[in-house]
């Protein structure tokens, strides 16, 4: 992607990923800046006329009843940022912070936040020049926006706080100076325009959604490899069967398995080897497919949110100012909880397929997929590790959005906890990715044993490609003494997450 041009209306998830992870340059459309200028003029007129408007010349939250003099309106905004930047914990990842900045700029250029274009341009310059504010991961309740993390985002703009630049953590002022970016003084309304919105939770959740959608394809590859390793029954994936219960995800998953195994002589038909397969093989379309539908629903909400104004109050160019609740995280908190559930289920069923591969009582493979079991433990503890990850996921998948704690002297009396939902979803996707990577490795190991039993059997066109990609870097594990299995698992995880594994498989077979 050469560059991304923001309009406030049509930012895509793929563009968010491109900017956040691959440093794609960003520009703002001139038409959008015109809307910004018009909204800003309204705010300046309000301040000059001393018309009472929340957040421009009043305190915040339950302090809205406190009037602020014209002379103090700018100081009010700096005080807001200084007092609200009280996060805790490890810093957010660089891609999450970059996604935050991008989404915030896209929101501000809708022209309803009454912020100066020069302030937006400073934020954009930080994005393009690689200044990454230090933002602790914890501290947002997901209503009144992500006040705490977004305040940390703003601090370096003022020469305050901390930021990473060229891999080094610096004082905010030093980071801006090294990048050649001038710090600013906030004007009336600008602090509130910058820190009031769902931008942090949306950024974390959007990246997790993208990763989960890739994960759903990897899960189908893993499932297809396991199916062939067990000589599973392909009849359960026929379109004829799924067309009479035509959930979109079911149909797409069944098609994926058929495409991946096309040309395979490892798959079987009903009663050739057994009458039925276990659910973890036979019901891949129903389980993976449901997760696909979940992810597509969440994606639809992300598409809306990254192109929304989540500020308060909203300042329209016609002079109308509306104080509402667009900052509230509930519209994304529930979807991100749902995202976590969908990603957890992909891991859950994968772990059960790992168990079926390593358990000699459930297959015709040697115990723990290793020669001379007993002397060697082989894949024994890989299943333990997967079990630990999916069990952790079950805890993390408890919905954060059903919780609320009153804040701000009971003025803000129902909050979303959406940032917690997004953070949990991210961790669940990561855990499930490791489980599915483990299944891919275990299935390839099982396929090698299967080939020893019958060298004439062959994989499908998609699964053969996946197998070859694994074996290009990870050989068959014949005993414990020649391998540190942790390193092997790190290699397979690296391959499926950061390598071209998925793209290479998709080059030979279409995946939904």
Short descriptors:
single chain, 512 residues, mainly alpha, Fumarase C, Chain B, domain 1, Fumarase C, Chain A, domain 2, 2 domains, three-stranded antiparallel β-sheet, two-stranded parallel ribbon, 19 helices, 9 strands
**Count of β-strands:** 9
Helix/strand-derived category reads mainly alpha
N→C terminal distance: 22 Å
Which strand order spans the largest sheet, edge to edge or round the barrel? 4-6-7
Q: What is the third-level CATH name, the topology of the largest domain?
A: Fumarase C, Chain A, domain 2
What is the helix/strand order?
A: EHEHHEHHEEHEEHHHHHHHEEHHHHHH
Examine the secondary-structure arrangement and name the CATH architecture of the largest domain. Answer: Up-down Bundle
Level-1 CATH class name of the largest domain? Mainly Alpha
Overall tally of domains: 2
Fold and architecture overview:
By secondary structure, the chain is mainly alpha-helical. It has two domains: 4-197, Orthogonal Bundle (Fumarase C, Chain B, domain 1); 205-314 and 322-506, Fumarase C, Chain A, domain 2 (Up-down Bundle). It is 55% helix and 5% strand. It has helices spanning 13-22, 30-49, 73-84, 94-108, 117-129, 147-154, 172-179, 190-195, 199-229, 239-242, 248-260, 279-282, 284-305, 330-358, 380-396, 418-453, 461-473, 485-498, 501-506; strands at residues 4-6, 26-28, 88-91, 131-133, 136-138, 162-165, 168-171, 314-315, 321-322. The strands form four sheets. It has a three-stranded antiparallel beta sheet with strand order 4-6-7. A two-stranded parallel ribbon has the order 1-2. A hairpin with a 5-residue loop joins strand 8 (314-315) and strand 9 (321-322). The longest helix has 36 residues, at 418-453. The chain is elongated, with a radius of gyration of 26 Å. The protein starts with a strand and ends in a 6-residue tail after the last helix. 53% of the residues are buried.
């Amino acid at each position: 992607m050469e560059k991304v041009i923001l309009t406030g209306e049509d930012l895509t998830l793929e563009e968010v990923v491109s900017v956040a992870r691959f440093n794609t340059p960003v520009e703002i459309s001139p038409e959008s800046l015109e809307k910004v200028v018009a909204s800003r003029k309204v705010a300046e007129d309000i301040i000059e006329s001393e018309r009472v408007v929340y957040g421009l010349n009043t305190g915040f939250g339950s302090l809205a009843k406190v009037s602020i003099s014209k002379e103090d309106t700018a100081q009010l905004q700096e005080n807001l940022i200084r007092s609200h930047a009280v996060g805790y914990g490890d810093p957010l990842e660089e891609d999450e912070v970059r996604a935050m900045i991008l989404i915030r700029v896209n929101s501000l250029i809708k022209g309803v936040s009454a912020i100066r274009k020069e302030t937006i341009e400073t934020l954009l310059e930080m994005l393009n020049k690689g200044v990454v504010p230090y933002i602790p991961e914890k501290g947002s309740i997901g209503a009144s926006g992500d006040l705490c993390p977004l305040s940390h985002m703003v601090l370096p703009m003022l020469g305050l706080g901390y930021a990473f630049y060229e891999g080094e953590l610096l004082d905010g002022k030093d980071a801006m100076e090294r990048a050649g970016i001038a710090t600013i003084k906030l004007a009336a309304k600008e602090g509130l325009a910058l820190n009031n919105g769902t931008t942090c939770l949306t950024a974390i959740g959007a990246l997790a959604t993208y990763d989960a959608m890739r994960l759903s394809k990897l899960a189908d590859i893993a499932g297809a490899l396991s199916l062939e390793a067990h000589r599973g029954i392909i009849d359960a994936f026929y379109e004829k069967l799924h067309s009479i219960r035509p959930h979109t995800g079911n149909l797409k998953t069944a098609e994926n398995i058929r495409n991946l195994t096309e040309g395979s002589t490892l798959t079987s038909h009903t009663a050739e080897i057994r009458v039925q397969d276990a659910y973890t093989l036979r019901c891949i379309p129903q389980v993976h497919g449901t997760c696909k539908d979940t992810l597509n629903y969440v994606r639809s909400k992300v598409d809306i949110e990254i192109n929304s104004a989540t500020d308060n109050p909203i300042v329209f160019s016609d002079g109308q100012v509306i104080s509402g609740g667009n900052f509230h995280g509930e519209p994304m908190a529930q979807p991100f909880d749902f995202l976590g559930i969908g990603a957890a289920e992909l891991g859950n069923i994968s772990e059960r397929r790992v168990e079926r591969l390593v358990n000699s009582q459930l297959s015709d493979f040697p115990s723990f997929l290793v020669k001379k079991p007993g002397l060697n433990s082989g894949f024994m503890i890989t299943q333990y590790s997967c079990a630990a990850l999916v069990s952790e996921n079950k805890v993390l998948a408890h919905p954060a959005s059903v919780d609320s704690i009153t804040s701000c002297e009971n003025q803000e009396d129902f909050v979303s906890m959406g940032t917690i939902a997004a953070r949990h979803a991210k961790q669940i996707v990561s855990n499930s990715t490791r489980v599915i990577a483990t299944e891919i490795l275990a299935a390839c190991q099982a396929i090698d044993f299967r080939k020893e039993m019958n060298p004439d059997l062959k994989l499908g066109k998609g699964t053969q490609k996946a197998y070859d990609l694994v074996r290009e870097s990870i050989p068959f594990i014949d005993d414990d003494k020649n391998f540190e299995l942790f390193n092997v698992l790190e290699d397979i995880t690296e391959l499926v997450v950061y390598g071209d594994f998925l793209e290479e498989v998709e080059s030979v077979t279409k995946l939904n």
